Amino acid sequence: MIMSEKGLFGQFGGSYVPEDLQKVLGVLANEFEKAKNDPAFIQEFKDVLTEFVGRENPLTYAKNLSEQQEGARIYLKREDLNHTGAHKINNAIGQILLAKRMGAKRVVAETGAGQHGVATATACAMFGMDCTIYMGKHDMKRQALNVFRMELLGAKVESVAAGQGRLKDAVDAALGDLVENYQHTFYLLGSAVGPHPFPTMVKFFQSVISEESKRQIMEKEGKLPTAVVACVGGGSNAIGAFAHYINEENVRIIGVEPAEAPSLTEGVPAVIHGFKCLTLLDEEGNPKPTYSIAAGLDYPGIGPEHSNLKESGRGEYVTITGQEALDAFKLLSETEGIIPALESAHAIAHAIKLAKELDKDDIIIVNLSGRGDKDVQQVFEMEYGEQE
Ligand SMILES: *Cc1c(COP(=O)(O)O)cnc(C)c1O
User: Fold this and answer.
1) Domain span at 305
2) Which of 140, 236, 258, 278 has the lowest CB atom count within 10 Å?
């Protein structure tokens, strides 16, 4: 292991990986730095977001929900309206443009629940890139429909039997592939986690969320929000939703974790997956297996920048239980006609609590990270039991 000083957020982040991988990541960091300062690259990114993803998406005033709480005005940033139904596509497009620019012919990615695999396969289809998705054997069984989606999109899904056959093992397999094939292969990582430069890069591409919401709220309300609320799995939708507000001292930034996987609220500093963050460890010091009803929030660690925002006190991090998220899932559906992803329902649940504590002239922006279609079957089974 060699430790790089780059990509540190306070004591968190960095790059704790073997030397051969460190070199590959060093090249990636340099290429990203050049790309993000190239106006032609940024223009292409914006154009694809407009034409393919459907940005910009609206900032919707949730009138019924707000009036019911008799408190703050709640706005929803509609990442659920993006092509493929969530924020993940923003990052997939950004990284695939970088892959193309670096001359890669092949993309590899990891996926847990399958959402990032689908976003990556979508972007690869669009750019004619060969695509291999590593997925734990165990996860493939639970997410058979997402495996089929990726295959429809032309991707090869590789089953990973090593370890527990879960997300962590898929990450290891994808990194192994990268080290072996780095000359023509690009690793498209799905959240604001991992060794440098991934957290910085993913934040950059997801920052389009707060770039838009800040402009939109100024147009609609003529002032900045009191708080921005987002759910936190690895932390990519949240860091994108917070990015343009971090230096606005009067705007509260609030990340919502599942009470069943509270990395920030109860975690300790440790190195996992090649970077340092607040994480949940078991008695033996290994990443603790977690379970959230929202598959996308089921990660024992958390992005390094969130770890630092928590430690410095700039960010507030709270927990919401699966039951509270489920109640919010139903409430938003009934009051606003929007079925949210179970992940996003965690953010909604907290925004409702917060709205009650605030005044009528306060504004809350909730990042609605994804739509709930993918979760309807699961909620149905939770309500009525598994059907024959
Ligand atoms: C994957 C996912 C998340 C969690 O990932 P982050 O990197 O923390 O944003 C949240 N919401 C939805 C809809 C997702 O698909």
Assistant:
1) 54-86+207-384
2) 140
Is any ligand 1 atom within 6 A of the Cβ of residue 240?
Answer: no
263 is catalytic: no
pLDDT digits (tens, 9 = 90+) for 127-171: 999 999 999 998 898 889 999 999 999 999 999 999 888 888 899
Specify the ligand 1 atom closest to the Cα of 116. Answer: 1
Asked whether residue 367 falls in the same domain as residue 271, the answer is: yes
Selected catalytic residue, list 88, 168, 203, 374: 88
Cα 15 from Cα 29, distance rounded (Å): 11
pTM: 0.96
Which residue, 159, 185, 202, sits at the end of a domain? 202
DSSP 319-353: EE-HHHHHHHHHHHHHHHS--B-HHHHHHHHHHHH
Same domain, 165 and 290: no
168: exposed, middle or buried (C-beta count within 10 Å: 0-12, 13-18, 19+)?
A: buried
The SS3 call for residue 147 is helix
Indicate which atom in ligand 1 lies nearest the CA of residue 80.
Answer: 13
| Residue among 110, 212, 324, 343 flagged as catalytic | 110
Q: What is the pLDDT of residues 243-283, one digit of tens each?
A: 999 999 999 999 999 999 899 999 999 998 899 999 999 88
Task: Tell me which residue has its CA closest to atom 10 in ligand 1.
Answer: 343
